[in-house]
């Protein structure tokens, strides 16, 4: 299906958020949100993705 | 008000482990009649589970364990108020939910600057032997008028069917125990609860 | 020294991690200054997985991590950002920024108070970046904040303490609350001044990261906050308009 991952349109095979992270090779310290709502790590396997979903995968970065 | 409207109460982490993955966002751990060591480990595990699943955890009664674990909320019944160290709880920055059943108890609770007020039993409850049989919906409305912006939690005999009426009557949050735990399919029931309180 | 949500810091310097010329310089600035707290943020993770290596470096420094909600303009954005930061950095500490104005980057105080309430309800330990308005400060404390971080001057402006009178009033009004001057510091003398006023810590970023020699500036900032803190505790003299001779006149020879 087509989703928007970190602002970029992407064609993906994954049907859940957890499998999306695996497919895209994200690991380590990341946090996820779908359609501007936080999805905690424990609920990623339950989070079904649908066409047009906006997924954000965030990681640590410098900040002031 | 930022707290979720659906507020189930469970007596062990076994229940939390089963139910939190369904997407519960506000939950109370009410451990009863267990030795201190068990209480502490239940509270500690509940804290970790709630962080993992993005839920707000309220610890019933065991305020010292809550302080030691770093929990954000404690619920106290009126009997608990007799022995709890309220200033220690406040100094630790912990938020307080207090049970009330009548005017006198409400006054006592309001004097402590609580972060939510619970009113029960809205409907007759099988769980506790109480001197109050049923508060009823008009009492819910009356309580909400009295407490204003403080969130009002309705508890006692709650069910999925009764929830919309209680929220309509003025409760901000609906709390529930046996409608889930004694149901033949608790997972399905929790899904219904989440749907009706969305 | 006042504690911050139960944590006693080794020193009153909090340093941001943005805009350094390189990760190596950032690391040196922290190690050589000894700053106890690092502010951090979140960004979209790219293919280079830069986030993971930044995280290892920060973890190695052994500092207290204070994630921020930089770039957020609404309470809702700030809440979602905070939840994600908590999961990534594994801390309940959050530097709450809800920005209201594009040029001054000053806080949107209404959104800030709303977000503070929602965040404290969810167990966050909030460090709100706020103005010097005492009414807003009261509201933040009622919302559940136990620390306040009033600005010295607009973020990155290097102006120092724009309204010292307001900051003094805030210190006097909230004598038991840990107060951190955050934003606008440019020079060590500004940081020292903040500590002389009795503030509990100073948070700065641009003054160090964009200095010609960030490592030297970081060391200067640590020296400054230590000097300011010692001075405050040493009960300094009051300023006066007229002179008062420092050398006593008793025993002076009559030579005219």
Describe this entry's structure for a reader.
The complex is a heterotrimer of chains A (64), B (198) and C (256). Chain A has 64 residues and is mainly beta. Chain A has a single domain, classed as Ubiquitin-like (UB roll). Helices cover 12% and strands 38% of the residues of chain A. Chain A has 1 helix and 5 strands. A 5-stranded mixed beta sheet of chain A has the order 2-1-5-3-4, with no helix packed on it. The N and C termini of chain A lie far apart (38 Å). The model of chain A has no long low-confidence stretch (mean pLDDT 95). By secondary structure, chain B is of the alpha/beta class. In chain B, 43% of the residues lie in helices and 18% in strands. Chain B contains 10 helices and 8 strands. Chain B has an 8-stranded parallel barrel, surrounded by 5 helices. The longest helix of chain B has 18 residues, at 36-53. Chain B is globular and about 40 Å long. In chain C, helix 1 (23-33) packs parallel to helix 9 and helix 4 runs parallel beside helix 5 (134-143). Chain C starts with 12 loop residues before the first strand and ends in a 23-residue tail after the last helix. Chain C has helices at residues 23-33, 50-61, 75-89, 109-121, 134-143, 164-173, 188-196, 206-209, 214-233; strands spanning 13-16, 37-44, 64-67, 93-96, 125-130, 149-150, 180-182, 201-204. Chain C is 41% helix and 14% strand. Chain C is built from 9 helices and 8 strands. Chains in contact: A-B, A-C, B-C.
